[in-house]
Amino acid sequence: MEPFQPHFIRLLRNNREVIKTSNTSRLHTQNPQSKAKPSSKMFRFHKPIDIITLFHKATSPASVRVAAALRQASAAASETSTEDQASDHTAQSNAVRRPEFKLDITEAPPTADQLRTILDYVGKARVGTIVKGAEDQEEALRRFGENVESLQRPVAVDWNNGKVAAGENESEILKMLNDLPK
Asked: Which pLDDT tens digits describe the chain residue by residue (182 residues)?
């Protein structure tokens, strides 16, 4: 029982809590001994859709192939069907599906901040795969500032998970997509 307060008194009668104030009385039917426990599943934050950006060069055959592969993977990941449709969908239902992602294909070069982030993702050892002839991040930023064409496209970036796949190696890009958290 709580200490006496002039405008507030709690009384227990027949396992019901009665709260009396100076003006009103309220009857609560909840058993005071059974404290409500917050559910651990009360709030569920949904995973945001991953964003994959492809820095694309339309005149590069490798970049065109990578863009087509990413478009196809994006379409397959977002594809859904219902069971009441006329055809049999057991193969699609049983297949391992990639998580859905948002594909952003741009021919514009990355901003300086985006390039810094990309270079952080790849690490010092692979800076040269992003910017031609660069040995470290400072040199890559300098070369890119002098000539944006020094960026070796295509470059696919998974911004949410901090991964980069550069060049025409489609298997590396597809591996990056397969590694997306579900």
From this structure: 555 544 444 555 554 555 555 445 454 444 545 555 555 555 666 677 888 999 999 999 999 999 999 898 888 877 654 445 555 555 555 445 567 889 999 999 999 999 999 999 999 989 999 999 999 999 999 999 999 999 999 999 999 889 999 888 888 888 888 887 77
Instruction: Please report where in the chains the tokens 């820095």 appear, as a residue.
Output: 55
Helix (H, G, I), strand (E, B) or coil at 94: helix
Cα(first)–Cα(last) distance of the chain, in Å? 50
**Three-state SS at 106:** strand
CB 53 within 8 A of CB 157: yes
Q: How does DSSP classify residue 31? A: -
| Region class of 123: left (phi > 0), else alpha (psi between -120 and 50), else beta | left
Please choose, from the candidates 105, 115, 106, the residue with its C-alpha nearest in 3D space to the C-alpha of residue 148: 115
Query: What does pTM read for this prediction?
Result: 0.65
The amino acid sitting at 173 is I
